[in-house]
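name: query_chain
kind: protein
chains: 1
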Amino acid sequence: MHNDIQEVLLTEQMLKDKVAELGAAITRDYADKEIFAIGILRGAVVFMADLIRAIERPVQIDFMAVSSYGMQADSSGIVRILKDLDSSITGKHVLIIEDIIDSGQTLSYLIKNLTERKPASIQLCTLMNKPERRKVDLPVKYVGFEIPNEFVVGYGLDYAEKYRNLPYLGVLKRSVYEK
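structure:
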């Protein structure tokens, strides 16, 4: 796996430090509230596990699985909900936890869908943001890192269901996905 990485973009220590910083900010902002954290499967699961441990507030968790990629390197633009929430979010303070925001189309669709369920609030937290790829405007309250327009894997992010277990974020060699 490591041989498929062109360069390490974010080290394991950089990721740990940023998660602690985001957890402290969320703890401060939700000082008198309980959080209903929604992790977007599968990519956000590693980040979410670390992040909720860094939040010093009551946190309820649930997951959604949405897809607009399949086995491709680029989003198809068609969003499908593969797994919906198991709990109601009506009246709850929702924090969507995402690994990376690219075009923003999937999250834009998801926020509209969740808003219809009448939560008290919805905020978005992403570990990584690729603003130069954005196709829709998104209100992202918590951003870990702005990263360049490279195909990245590790720390939960995959290509064809591989590389999620790398402890760092790396740029995948083009030769791996341009076959």
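note: The radius of gyration is 16 Å.
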